[in-house]
Amino acid sequence: MIREKRFEHIISSLKNTGAVTYSGMSMDLSVSEDTIRRDIDYLHENGLLSKVRGGAISRDKNPLSFHDRADFHATEKEIIALKVQPLLKSGMTIFMDGGTTVCAVAECLTANASLRVITNNIALVPLLGRFKNLEVIVLGGNYDRNTQTNLGAKTCEEAAEFVVDLYLMGTCAISKDFGITAAVREDGAVKKAMLKGAKSVVVLSNSKKIGINEPFVVCELQRIHVLVTELPSDDSKLDELRFKNLKII
Amino acid sequence: MIREKRFEHIISSLKNTGAVTYSGMSMDLSVSEDTIRRDIDYLHENGLLSKVRGGAISRDKNPLSFHDRADFHATEKEIIALKVQPLLKSGMTIFMDGGTTVCAVAECLTANASLRVITNNIALVPLLGRFKNLEVIVLGGNYDRNTQTNLGAKTCEEAAEFVVDLYLMGTCAISKDFGITAAVREDGAVKKAMLKGAKSVVVLSNSKKIGINEPFVVCELQRIHVLVTELPSDDSKLDELRFKNLKII
DNA sequence: TGCGAATTTGCAAGATTTTGCATTTATTTA
DNA sequence: TAAATAAATGCAAAATCTTGCAAATTCGCA
């Protein structure tokens, strides 16, 4: 039997029952479990299902799939996005980097927002494209499929060519001791490059990232001007971050 | 038996069962498997089916698409996209520019395609992101919401930093008298920049764009090596473009 | 009709991919 | 923690693909 026919059977079984097992498919299709395992590996790699122990489940039922996770934090992100709006004044040029929180900001923009946005965030571009009065400049580089951003030396180099009024820095770890830190080295490098040309820095951070440290240092707390979280600004979790020059909203 | 009669049988078997094998067709038609293999090669090149290991599967899994006029345009693009596949060899570095035809090529890529793709086409990036073995480099620039591409001086400048094996040039006007022409000046500029670094040039063009001239000259016909349209390669509409060094497929 | 050129077909050797099994490594469960 | 189960790995046999070639067939043309 042709491999693609097996794929078809696996996918359609998955649609009917929501889950398949190696042993079940092996019997259905009269091939070894190893072959089914390899088929499911392949389908998993291509995002057509989610591999789990013993077999596979359909992607939308996987509790850890990207969409569900995105939904989970949706309200938090929306709160942050709404808090950011008053900071965006007409005519500003701003940096926006990676992360779904930054995308949430784009989705909350008012229809007549008039800004020049410079970004390495590919997911953000089509969102911004809907607004007639936005000028969008994309920073090139090596596309990273995990973060959906452009990264690498080229991106940093290009970012260095701008001076902007505001830098909206996407979700990142923030703590009193080590300041802002990034989980991905190259992401950290882009953040550093954007910082250099930013007159004002706004950090968007989920409260879960507060007090957390990642391996790659981005900057000290002193460098940032505004911190936006989904918490009320007087929440005690934020106490450790209160400094004279850091505005928390 | 006449070759076209075999084609007929292969296509109709495919419609009934969704898949055919070399051995099955070989027995049905009393010819060697090699002959069937060559038949299926031919049908694959012309976009009538998808070749897979052991045989072929039907291109469209849903039966409604055949007579659907609304989908007619999409099918043309798919035919072009399928014809392009054999030109993409593992390990190549290629330019891909704007246009939905180029996106169709991305959607028809085999799952294990191993390429380095350099593009200014934002719509293309998420499509390419699905493939594990693709390296994607994005050219920055001013985002144009109409074409969903990055354009402008910066884009051209960045394109000039590469030498690629192949340039897949998206839909554009092509005529005997004026060669390749573009409707948007900045798009034409990017095309020119990409041409400079391309060892081989493949133009994807809808037959409606043949014999048409747009305001902005991109290059002469002599500069391109392969022209891909949705028409059979011996169609008379293509006659005016036949030159010694231009391969039409 | 007959001849040479071009195309089609089948075959075979060698390269590549897929498959199932045995073995090792990792994870779960009792 | 040990036993049970699942997953990953390496390997060899089988299946499939590619390539080149020669025989057979078709085609163009005189």
Structural description of this entry:
The structure is a homodimer of 249-residue chains. Chain A is α/β, with parallel strands linked by helices and 249 residues long. The first copy, chain A, is 35% helix and 22% strand. Chain A is built from nine helices and 15 strands. The first copy, chain A, has helices at residues 3-17, 22-29, 33-45, 66-72, 74-84, 100-107, 124-129, 153-159, 185-196, and strands spanning 19-21, 50-52, 55-57, 93-96, 115-119, 134-138, 141-144, 149-151, 166-169, 173-175, 179-182, 201-204, 216-219, 226-228, 247-248. In chain A, strand 10 (173-175) and strand 11 (179-182) form a beta hairpin. The longest helix of chain A is centred in the N-terminal third of the chain and has 15 residues, at 3-17. At the A-B interface, helix 1, helix 7, strand 6, strand 7 and helix 8 of A face helix 6, strand 6, strand 7 and helix 7 of B. The structure holds a DNA duplex (30 and 30 nucleotides).
**Beta-strand residue percentage of chain A:** 15-25%
Chains forming the largest contact: A-B, 31 and 33 residues
Succession of helices and strands of chain A: HEHHEEHHEHEHEEEHEEEHEEEE
Q: Mind summarizing the main beta sheet of chain A?
A: 7 strands, parallel
| CATH fold group of the largest domain in chain A | Rossmann fold
- SS content category of chain A: alpha/beta
Query: Which CATH class of the largest domain in chain A is shown?
Result: Alpha Beta
Summed up, the helix count of chain A is 9
